[in-house]
From TrEMBL:
It comes from the Eukaryota. This is Uncharacterized protein. The lineage of its organism: Eukaryota, Fungi, Fungi incertae sedis, Mucoromycota, Glomeromycotina.
Amino acid sequence: MAALLSPKKLLAQYVVYLYNAVLLPRLEFHLQTTLFSESTIQSIVKPMFSILRRKAGLAATTPLALLFLKLPFSIQNAFYRFLSSHIASWQKIFTHPDFKDFALYAISYLQGYLGAESCPTIINLEPWSQVISL
């Protein structure tokens, strides 16, 4: 996608739209069964960031944090989007009544793998409910 967009005369806002509305959903579909590290995801989307920097007239050393600001670009962070997608899919599995046995098996497997004495979902958090966070 970056190779196709590089020679085109596009505004930075169009590149942002193509990144958010076209590239990320396609990647999300292809990566729905695998969760890669943040560095791997960043290496996948890095060419699009370099095109965006060039189209916006920014220096190549512009920090990525500037691109993720709401104004003027509002680019979505690919890793956090994929992570939230994975969490949402697992939440659907664990809350669906047909997958209750699988969910209990997965929790007990993780509990044994992590060496936890009790499952985190059954820990009583009532004593901590009155704690005020700073």
